[in-house]
Amino acid sequence: MEQRLSGQQSDAREGRAGERGNPPYHPRLVRKLKRAAVSLPFILLAALLVRLIAAWGYTHVRPSHALGIIPFLFEPGNIAYALATGHGFSSPFRIPTGPTAWMTPVYPLLLAGIFHVFGIYTYGSFVAAAFCNILFSALATIPIFFIGQRLGGRALAITAAWLWAVFPNAIVMPYRAIWDASLSALLASGILWATLALAESKRWRGWWAYGVLWGFTLMTNPTLGALLPLLLAWIAWRRWKQSHWLVGPLLAIAIAGLCCVPWTVRNYRTFHTLVPLRSVLGLQLWMGNNDQVGHRWPGVLHPITNSAERAEYIRMGEIAYMHHKRDEALHFITSHPAKEVRLIAIRFVATWTGGSERPIRDFLFAYSWWLRFVLLFNLFAAAGTALGIVLLNRSGSPYAFPVVVVPVVYPLISYVSLASPRYRHPIDPVILLLTAVSVLWVFQSRQKIGMRGQRSPASPQAAAPSM
Q: 9, 90, 106, 172: which could join 220 in a potential S-S bond, CB 3.0 to 4.6 Å?
Protein backbone atom coordinates (compact mmCIF):
# COMPACT_ATOMS: atom_id res chain seq x y z
CA MET A 1 0.00 0.00 0.00
CA GLU A 2 2.78 2.41 0.92
CA GLN A 3 4.60 1.60 -2.32
CA ARG A 4 1.45 2.33 -4.34
CA LEU A 5 0.99 5.70 -2.61
CA SER A 6 4.64 6.54 -3.18
CA GLY A 7 4.29 5.72 -6.90
CA GLN A 8 1.16 7.88 -7.16
CA GLN A 9 2.92 10.79 -5.47
CA SER A 10 5.84 10.41 -7.87
CA ASP A 11 3.47 10.40 -10.85
CA ALA A 12 1.74 13.48 -9.48
CA ARG A 13 5.06 15.29 -9.12
CA GLU A 14 5.99 14.39 -12.71
CA GLY A 15 2.57 15.63 -13.89
CA ARG A 16 2.98 18.95 -12.06
CA ALA A 17 6.46 19.31 -13.56
CA GLY A 18 4.97 18.80 -17.01
CA GLU A 19 2.27 21.41 -16.31
CA ARG A 20 4.98 23.93 -15.31
CA GLY A 21 6.69 23.40 -18.69
CA ASN A 22 9.50 21.10 -17.50
CA PRO A 23 9.68 17.75 -19.32
CA PRO A 24 8.74 14.85 -17.02
CA TYR A 25 11.53 12.45 -16.07
CA HIS A 26 10.92 8.89 -17.23
CA PRO A 27 13.51 6.63 -15.59
CA ARG A 28 12.08 3.54 -17.27
CA LEU A 29 12.48 5.11 -20.72
CA VAL A 30 16.02 6.20 -19.89
CA ARG A 31 16.90 2.68 -18.78
CA LYS A 32 15.49 1.25 -22.03
CA LEU A 33 17.51 3.72 -24.10
CA LYS A 34 20.67 2.86 -22.20
CA ARG A 35 20.07 -0.85 -22.71
CA ALA A 36 19.47 -0.28 -26.41
CA ALA A 37 22.63 1.81 -26.81
CA VAL A 38 24.80 -1.05 -25.55
CA SER A 39 23.12 -3.75 -27.65
CA LEU A 40 24.65 -5.06 -30.86
CA PRO A 41 21.49 -4.62 -33.01
CA PHE A 42 21.25 -0.93 -32.02
CA ILE A 43 24.94 -0.27 -32.78
CA LEU A 44 24.62 -2.11 -36.09
CA LEU A 45 21.58 -0.02 -37.00
CA ALA A 46 23.37 3.18 -35.99
CA ALA A 47 26.37 2.26 -38.16
CA LEU A 48 24.09 1.59 -41.12
CA LEU A 49 22.09 4.80 -40.69
CA VAL A 50 25.08 7.10 -40.31
CA ARG A 51 26.60 5.68 -43.51
CA LEU A 52 23.32 6.00 -45.41
CA ILE A 53 22.84 9.59 -44.26
CA ALA A 54 26.40 10.52 -45.24
CA ALA A 55 25.96 8.86 -48.65
CA TRP A 56 22.68 10.69 -49.21
CA GLY A 57 24.36 14.00 -48.42
CA TYR A 58 27.17 13.15 -50.85
CA THR A 59 24.85 12.24 -53.73
CA HIS A 60 22.40 15.09 -53.04
CA VAL A 61 24.89 17.77 -54.14
CA ARG A 62 26.34 15.95 -57.18
CA PRO A 63 24.88 15.35 -60.65
CA SER A 64 23.36 11.89 -60.93
CA HIS A 65 24.74 11.32 -64.45
CA ALA A 66 28.29 11.98 -63.16
CA LEU A 67 27.83 9.58 -60.25
CA GLY A 68 26.72 6.92 -62.72
CA ILE A 69 30.02 7.09 -64.60
CA ILE A 70 32.98 8.60 -62.72
CA PRO A 71 33.13 6.22 -59.69
CA PHE A 72 33.33 3.24 -62.09
CA LEU A 73 36.22 4.59 -64.19
CA PHE A 74 38.82 2.69 -62.20
CA GLU A 75 40.10 -0.85 -62.51
CA PRO A 76 37.17 -2.69 -60.82
CA GLY A 77 34.55 -0.77 -62.79
CA ASN A 78 36.44 -1.08 -66.07
CA ILE A 79 36.85 -4.83 -65.68
CA ALA A 80 33.18 -5.07 -64.68
CA TYR A 81 32.28 -3.16 -67.85
CA ALA A 82 34.25 -5.66 -69.93
CA LEU A 83 32.49 -8.54 -68.18
CA ALA A 84 29.05 -6.98 -68.59
CA THR A 85 29.60 -6.36 -72.30
CA GLY A 86 30.78 -9.90 -73.01
CA HIS A 87 34.54 -9.27 -73.29
CA GLY A 88 35.56 -11.38 -70.32
CA PHE A 89 37.85 -10.48 -67.45
CA SER A 90 39.88 -7.86 -69.29
CA SER A 91 40.70 -4.21 -70.03
CA PRO A 92 41.34 -2.41 -66.71
CA PHE A 93 41.98 0.98 -68.44
CA ARG A 94 38.66 1.86 -70.17
CA ILE A 95 40.07 0.76 -73.54
CA PRO A 96 40.40 -2.78 -74.92
CA THR A 97 43.76 -4.16 -73.75
CA GLY A 98 43.05 -7.87 -73.55
CA PRO A 99 42.80 -10.30 -70.62
CA THR A 100 44.04 -9.20 -67.23
CA ALA A 101 45.00 -10.54 -63.82
CA TRP A 102 45.12 -7.00 -62.41
CA MET A 103 42.89 -8.03 -59.53
CA THR A 104 41.14 -11.13 -58.32
CA PRO A 105 37.61 -11.76 -59.60
CA VAL A 106 35.13 -11.38 -56.72
CA TYR A 107 34.57 -7.62 -56.66
CA PRO A 108 34.59 -7.01 -60.46
CA LEU A 109 32.07 -9.86 -60.78
CA LEU A 110 29.88 -8.19 -58.15
CA LEU A 111 29.97 -4.91 -60.07
CA ALA A 112 29.30 -6.72 -63.35
CA GLY A 113 26.21 -8.28 -61.76
CA ILE A 114 25.06 -4.81 -60.66
CA PHE A 115 25.56 -3.54 -64.23
CA HIS A 116 23.41 -6.39 -65.54
CA VAL A 117 20.57 -5.53 -63.16
CA PHE A 118 20.68 -1.72 -62.98
CA GLY A 119 22.34 -0.82 -66.27
CA ILE A 120 25.89 0.02 -67.31
CA TYR A 121 27.15 3.39 -66.06
CA THR A 122 23.82 4.43 -64.54
CA TYR A 123 22.94 6.26 -61.36
CA GLY A 124 21.05 3.16 -60.23
CA SER A 125 24.22 1.09 -60.52
CA PHE A 126 26.12 3.61 -58.40
CA VAL A 127 23.42 3.53 -55.72
CA ALA A 128 23.42 -0.28 -55.71
CA ALA A 129 27.23 -0.52 -55.55
CA ALA A 130 27.46 2.12 -52.80
CA PHE A 131 24.68 0.42 -50.82
CA CYS A 132 26.50 -2.92 -51.03
CA ASN A 133 29.65 -1.27 -49.70
CA ILE A 134 27.67 0.45 -46.94
CA LEU A 135 26.12 -2.87 -45.96
CA PHE A 136 29.52 -4.58 -45.88
CA SER A 137 30.93 -1.79 -43.72
CA ALA A 138 28.02 -1.83 -41.26
CA LEU A 139 28.07 -5.63 -40.98
CA ALA A 140 31.72 -5.48 -39.88
CA THR A 141 30.29 -4.28 -36.55
CA ILE A 142 29.27 -7.88 -35.79
CA PRO A 143 32.71 -9.56 -35.83
CA ILE A 144 34.25 -6.53 -34.10
CA PHE A 145 31.71 -6.89 -31.28
CA PHE A 146 32.30 -10.61 -30.77
CA ILE A 147 36.09 -10.33 -31.01
CA GLY A 148 35.98 -7.62 -28.34
CA GLN A 149 33.70 -9.73 -26.16
CA ARG A 150 36.05 -12.71 -26.37
CA LEU A 151 39.09 -10.52 -25.83
CA GLY A 152 37.97 -8.32 -22.93
CA GLY A 153 34.30 -8.69 -22.12
CA ARG A 154 31.17 -6.78 -23.00
CA ALA A 155 32.55 -3.31 -22.26
CA LEU A 156 35.32 -3.77 -24.80
CA ALA A 157 32.87 -5.20 -27.34
CA ILE A 158 30.54 -2.20 -27.04
CA THR A 159 33.35 0.37 -27.17
CA ALA A 160 34.98 -1.21 -30.23
CA ALA A 161 31.67 -1.53 -32.08
CA TRP A 162 30.74 2.11 -31.42
CA LEU A 163 34.18 3.33 -32.53
CA TRP A 164 33.74 1.48 -35.80
CA ALA A 165 30.20 2.82 -36.21
CA VAL A 166 31.41 6.45 -36.08
CA PHE A 167 34.85 6.01 -37.67
CA PRO A 168 34.97 8.65 -40.44
CA ASN A 169 37.04 6.53 -42.83
CA ALA A 170 34.46 3.74 -42.61
CA ILE A 171 31.62 6.22 -43.14
CA VAL A 172 32.93 7.79 -46.36
CA MET A 173 34.84 4.87 -47.90
CA PRO A 174 31.78 2.93 -49.17
CA TYR A 175 30.53 5.62 -51.54
CA ARG A 176 33.68 7.59 -52.33
CA ALA A 177 35.61 4.52 -53.52
CA ILE A 178 33.81 1.84 -55.51
CA TRP A 179 36.47 -0.67 -54.57
CA ASP A 180 36.59 -3.80 -52.44
CA ALA A 181 37.85 -1.97 -49.30
CA SER A 182 34.59 -2.25 -47.31
CA LEU A 183 34.09 -5.90 -48.25
CA SER A 184 37.74 -6.58 -47.34
CA ALA A 185 37.22 -4.94 -43.93
CA LEU A 186 34.26 -7.26 -43.29
CA LEU A 187 36.23 -10.32 -44.43
CA ALA A 188 39.37 -9.44 -42.43
CA SER A 189 37.40 -8.92 -39.21
CA GLY A 190 35.39 -12.07 -39.90
CA ILE A 191 38.58 -14.08 -40.37
CA LEU A 192 39.99 -12.81 -37.08
CA TRP A 193 36.74 -13.66 -35.29
CA ALA A 194 36.75 -17.16 -36.79
CA THR A 195 40.44 -17.61 -35.91
CA LEU A 196 39.82 -16.91 -32.23
CA ALA A 197 36.72 -19.11 -32.17
CA LEU A 198 38.38 -22.06 -33.90
CA ALA A 199 41.40 -22.08 -31.62
CA GLU A 200 39.50 -24.41 -29.26
CA SER A 201 37.29 -26.19 -31.82
CA LYS A 202 37.50 -29.67 -33.32
CA ARG A 203 34.28 -29.47 -35.33
CA TRP A 204 34.94 -30.36 -38.95
CA ARG A 205 32.25 -28.02 -40.22
CA GLY A 206 33.99 -25.03 -38.66
CA TRP A 207 37.31 -25.84 -40.30
CA TRP A 208 35.66 -26.34 -43.70
CA ALA A 209 33.96 -22.96 -43.36
CA TYR A 210 37.23 -21.34 -42.26
CA GLY A 211 39.00 -22.63 -45.36
CA VAL A 212 36.20 -21.41 -47.63
CA LEU A 213 36.27 -18.01 -45.90
CA TRP A 214 40.00 -17.71 -46.52
CA GLY A 215 39.58 -18.80 -50.14
CA PHE A 216 36.86 -16.22 -50.77
CA THR A 217 39.00 -13.56 -49.09
CA LEU A 218 42.02 -14.34 -51.26
CA MET A 219 39.78 -14.07 -54.33
CA THR A 220 38.65 -10.65 -53.08
CA ASN A 221 41.83 -9.05 -51.67
CA PRO A 222 45.01 -11.14 -52.00
CA THR A 223 46.95 -8.70 -49.81
CA LEU A 224 45.18 -10.19 -46.78
CA GLY A 225 47.01 -13.41 -47.62
CA ALA A 226 50.01 -11.96 -45.77
CA LEU A 227 48.11 -12.83 -42.57
CA LEU A 228 47.19 -16.39 -43.59
CA PRO A 229 50.40 -18.21 -42.55
CA LEU A 230 50.63 -16.30 -39.27
CA LEU A 231 47.04 -16.87 -38.18
CA LEU A 232 47.06 -20.50 -39.25
CA ALA A 233 50.40 -21.06 -37.52
CA TRP A 234 48.93 -19.64 -34.32
CA ILE A 235 45.89 -21.93 -34.55
CA ALA A 236 48.10 -24.94 -35.29
CA TRP A 237 50.33 -24.13 -32.30
CA ARG A 238 47.26 -23.79 -30.03
CA ARG A 239 45.77 -27.08 -31.27
CA TRP A 240 49.10 -28.91 -30.95
CA LYS A 241 49.66 -27.55 -27.45
CA GLN A 242 46.21 -28.66 -26.31
CA SER A 243 45.71 -32.00 -28.03
CA HIS A 244 48.41 -32.65 -30.65
CA TRP A 245 45.65 -32.28 -33.25
CA LEU A 246 46.51 -30.50 -36.54
CA VAL A 247 43.99 -32.00 -38.95
CA GLY A 248 41.70 -28.96 -38.76
CA PRO A 249 44.29 -26.30 -39.68
CA LEU A 250 45.66 -28.52 -42.47
CA LEU A 251 42.15 -29.05 -43.82
CA ALA A 252 41.49 -25.30 -43.76
CA ILE A 253 44.62 -24.38 -45.68
CA ALA A 254 43.96 -27.13 -48.22
CA ILE A 255 40.44 -25.84 -48.87
CA ALA A 256 41.68 -22.24 -49.12
CA GLY A 257 44.22 -23.34 -51.71
CA LEU A 258 41.62 -25.29 -53.67
CA CYS A 259 39.42 -22.18 -53.83
CA CYS A 260 42.27 -20.39 -55.64
CA VAL A 261 43.03 -23.18 -58.13
CA PRO A 262 40.45 -22.26 -60.83
CA TRP A 263 41.68 -18.66 -60.95
CA THR A 264 45.34 -19.71 -61.01
CA VAL A 265 44.66 -22.19 -63.83
CA ARG A 266 42.83 -19.48 -65.77
CA ASN A 267 45.80 -17.14 -65.37
CA TYR A 268 48.28 -19.80 -66.47
CA ARG A 269 46.26 -20.68 -69.55
CA THR A 270 45.87 -16.99 -70.40
CA PHE A 271 49.40 -15.71 -69.76
CA HIS A 272 51.41 -18.97 -70.06
CA THR A 273 53.14 -18.27 -66.77
CA LEU A 274 52.28 -18.75 -63.11
CA VAL A 275 50.21 -15.90 -61.69
CA PRO A 276 48.72 -17.37 -58.50
CA LEU A 277 46.45 -14.44 -57.61
CA ARG A 278 47.17 -11.08 -59.28
CA SER A 279 49.87 -9.40 -61.31
CA VAL A 280 49.95 -5.78 -60.14
CA LEU A 281 52.57 -5.84 -57.36
CA GLY A 282 55.43 -4.82 -59.65
CA LEU A 283 53.63 -1.63 -60.74
CA GLN A 284 52.68 -0.68 -57.17
CA LEU A 285 56.27 -1.15 -56.04
CA TRP A 286 57.54 1.03 -58.91
CA MET A 287 54.98 3.81 -58.38
CA GLY A 288 56.30 4.30 -54.86
CA ASN A 289 59.99 3.86 -55.73
CA ASN A 290 61.26 5.80 -58.73
CA ASP A 291 63.15 8.99 -59.60
CA GLN A 292 59.95 11.05 -59.75
CA VAL A 293 58.68 10.22 -56.25
CA GLY A 294 58.44 13.38 -54.20
CA HIS A 295 58.22 15.62 -57.28
CA ARG A 296 54.93 14.36 -58.69
CA TRP A 297 51.82 12.71 -57.30
CA PRO A 298 52.30 8.95 -57.84
CA GLY A 299 48.89 8.67 -59.49
CA VAL A 300 50.10 10.51 -62.59
CA LEU A 301 52.41 7.57 -63.31
CA HIS A 302 49.58 5.05 -63.35
CA PRO A 303 48.72 3.60 -66.78
CA ILE A 304 45.07 4.47 -66.24
CA THR A 305 45.96 8.19 -66.43
CA ASN A 306 49.41 8.21 -68.07
CA SER A 307 49.19 7.59 -71.82
CA ALA A 308 52.91 6.77 -72.18
CA GLU A 309 52.75 4.10 -69.47
CA ARG A 310 49.53 2.76 -70.93
CA ALA A 311 51.14 2.46 -74.36
CA GLU A 312 54.10 0.61 -72.82
CA TYR A 313 51.71 -1.72 -71.00
CA ILE A 314 49.93 -2.53 -74.27
CA ARG A 315 53.18 -2.99 -76.18
CA MET A 316 54.85 -5.27 -73.63
CA GLY A 317 51.81 -7.14 -72.36
CA GLU A 318 50.66 -7.18 -68.74
CA ILE A 319 53.03 -9.74 -67.25
CA ALA A 320 56.18 -8.46 -68.97
CA TYR A 321 55.23 -4.89 -68.04
CA MET A 322 54.80 -5.82 -64.37
CA HIS A 323 58.12 -7.65 -64.28
CA HIS A 324 59.83 -4.68 -65.91
CA LYS A 325 58.38 -2.27 -63.34
CA ARG A 326 59.37 -4.59 -60.50
CA ASP A 327 62.96 -4.71 -61.73
CA GLU A 328 63.08 -0.90 -62.07
CA ALA A 329 61.73 -0.48 -58.53
CA LEU A 330 64.22 -2.93 -57.03
CA HIS A 331 67.07 -1.18 -58.83
CA PHE A 332 65.95 2.18 -57.45
CA ILE A 333 65.63 0.79 -53.90
CA THR A 334 69.09 -0.78 -53.89
CA SER A 335 70.78 2.24 -55.49
CA HIS A 336 69.14 4.89 -53.25
CA PRO A 337 69.16 3.39 -49.73
CA ALA A 338 69.10 6.72 -47.86
CA LYS A 339 66.23 8.06 -49.93
CA GLU A 340 64.38 4.77 -49.53
CA VAL A 341 64.57 5.00 -45.74
CA ARG A 342 63.08 8.50 -45.95
CA LEU A 343 60.32 7.31 -48.30
CA ILE A 344 59.46 4.43 -45.97
CA ALA A 345 59.19 6.89 -43.07
CA ILE A 346 56.91 9.15 -45.12
CA ARG A 347 54.69 6.24 -46.10
CA PHE A 348 54.59 5.03 -42.50
CA VAL A 349 53.26 8.42 -41.42
CA ALA A 350 50.76 8.52 -44.30
CA THR A 351 49.50 5.03 -43.46
CA TRP A 352 48.68 5.94 -39.86
CA THR A 353 47.35 9.46 -40.43
CA GLY A 354 44.79 8.43 -43.02
CA GLY A 355 46.85 9.54 -46.01
CA SER A 356 48.57 12.69 -44.79
CA GLU A 357 52.35 12.76 -45.28
CA ARG A 358 52.66 16.06 -43.34
CA PRO A 359 49.88 15.96 -40.74
CA ILE A 360 50.73 19.23 -38.95
CA ARG A 361 50.78 21.24 -42.18
CA ASP A 362 47.65 19.53 -43.48
CA PHE A 363 45.81 20.21 -40.23
CA LEU A 364 46.72 23.90 -40.22
CA PHE A 365 45.88 24.51 -43.88
CA ALA A 366 42.93 22.15 -44.34
CA TYR A 367 40.05 23.85 -46.14
CA SER A 368 37.37 22.32 -43.87
CA TRP A 369 36.91 21.26 -40.27
CA TRP A 370 35.73 17.86 -41.50
CA LEU A 371 39.21 17.14 -42.90
CA ARG A 372 40.74 18.22 -39.60
CA PHE A 373 38.35 15.93 -37.75
CA VAL A 374 39.25 12.97 -39.99
CA LEU A 375 42.96 13.63 -39.47
CA LEU A 376 42.56 13.89 -35.69
CA PHE A 377 40.46 10.72 -35.55
CA ASN A 378 43.13 8.82 -37.49
CA LEU A 379 45.87 10.13 -35.20
CA PHE A 380 43.74 9.13 -32.21
CA ALA A 381 43.31 5.63 -33.70
CA ALA A 382 47.05 5.37 -34.42
CA ALA A 383 47.96 6.29 -30.85
CA GLY A 384 45.23 3.99 -29.53
CA THR A 385 46.54 1.11 -31.62
CA ALA A 386 50.10 1.55 -30.38
CA LEU A 387 48.98 1.70 -26.75
CA GLY A 388 46.52 -1.14 -27.28
CA ILE A 389 49.28 -3.40 -28.59
CA VAL A 390 51.37 -2.73 -25.49
CA LEU A 391 48.42 -3.25 -23.12
CA LEU A 392 47.27 -6.44 -24.82
CA ASN A 393 50.75 -7.95 -24.71
CA ARG A 394 51.14 -7.01 -21.05
CA SER A 395 47.74 -8.50 -20.18
CA GLY A 396 48.88 -12.03 -20.98
CA SER A 397 45.79 -12.64 -23.09
CA PRO A 398 45.98 -15.91 -25.04
CA TYR A 399 44.49 -14.03 -28.00
CA ALA A 400 47.06 -11.23 -28.07
CA PHE A 401 49.15 -12.60 -30.96
CA PRO A 402 46.46 -12.93 -33.67
CA VAL A 403 45.04 -9.49 -32.83
CA VAL A 404 48.38 -7.69 -32.62
CA VAL A 405 49.88 -9.30 -35.71
CA VAL A 406 47.22 -7.77 -37.99
CA PRO A 407 48.24 -4.07 -37.66
CA VAL A 408 51.92 -4.98 -37.33
CA VAL A 409 52.28 -7.14 -40.45
CA TYR A 410 49.56 -6.09 -42.88
CA PRO A 411 50.75 -2.48 -43.52
CA LEU A 412 54.33 -3.56 -44.34
CA ILE A 413 53.56 -3.67 -48.06
CA SER A 414 52.30 -0.07 -47.89
CA TYR A 415 55.51 1.08 -46.23
CA VAL A 416 57.58 -0.12 -49.20
CA SER A 417 55.15 0.67 -52.04
CA LEU A 418 52.16 3.04 -51.71
CA ALA A 419 50.24 4.37 -48.71
CA SER A 420 46.53 5.12 -48.95
CA PRO A 421 43.53 5.05 -46.59
CA ARG A 422 41.94 2.52 -48.95
CA TYR A 423 44.93 0.18 -48.65
CA ARG A 424 44.77 0.28 -44.84
CA HIS A 425 41.00 0.04 -44.59
CA PRO A 426 40.74 -3.79 -44.49
CA ILE A 427 42.43 -3.78 -41.05
CA ASP A 428 40.70 -0.67 -39.72
CA PRO A 429 38.23 -2.77 -37.66
CA VAL A 430 41.16 -4.32 -35.77
CA ILE A 431 42.75 -0.88 -35.37
CA LEU A 432 39.55 0.40 -33.76
CA LEU A 433 39.42 -2.71 -31.54
CA LEU A 434 42.91 -1.98 -30.20
CA THR A 435 41.93 1.67 -29.78
CA ALA A 436 38.99 0.51 -27.69
CA VAL A 437 41.42 -1.43 -25.46
CA SER A 438 43.30 1.84 -24.86
CA VAL A 439 40.12 3.86 -24.26
CA LEU A 440 38.88 1.44 -21.60
CA TRP A 441 42.28 1.35 -19.91
CA VAL A 442 42.41 5.16 -19.73
CA PHE A 443 38.82 5.35 -18.47
CA GLN A 444 39.38 2.69 -15.81
CA SER A 445 42.63 4.35 -14.72
CA ARG A 446 40.81 7.66 -14.27
CA GLN A 447 38.14 5.90 -12.24
CA LYS A 448 40.78 4.41 -9.94
CA ILE A 449 42.41 7.82 -9.51
CA GLY A 450 39.01 9.32 -8.72
CA MET A 451 38.25 6.66 -6.13
CA ARG A 452 41.62 7.19 -4.46
CA GLY A 453 41.03 10.94 -4.31
CA GLN A 454 37.63 10.71 -2.57
CA ARG A 455 37.40 11.87 1.03
CA SER A 456 34.85 10.62 3.53
CA PRO A 457 33.55 13.34 5.92
CA ALA A 458 33.21 10.81 8.70
CA SER A 459 36.66 9.35 8.32
CA PRO A 460 39.72 11.61 7.82
CA GLN A 461 41.88 8.55 7.40
CA ALA A 462 40.06 7.86 4.12
CA ALA A 463 42.17 10.57 2.53
CA ALA A 464 45.15 8.23 2.45
CA PRO A 465 45.29 6.21 -0.77
CA SER A 466 44.99 2.47 -0.35
CA MET A 467 47.55 0.36 -2.16
A: 106
104-146: per-residue pLDDT in tens? Answer: 999 999 999 999 999 999 999 999 999 999 999 999 999 999 9
In a domain, 150, yes or no: yes
Last-in-domain residue among 150, 178, 206: 178
Calculate the average pLDDT of the chain.
Answer: 88
* Global confidence as pTM: 0.89
Residues 91 and 150 in one domain: yes
Burial of 14 from C-beta contacts in 10 A (0-12 / 13-18 / 19+): middle
Q: Is residue 451's pLDDT more than 50?
A: no
Domain boundary among 178, 201, 232: 178
pLDDT tens readout for residues 202-249: 677 889 999 999 999 999 999 999 999 999 999 989 888 877 677 888
Check whether residue 151 and residue 254 sit in a common domain: no
Domain count, the chain: 2
Residue 41 belongs to some domain of the structure: yes
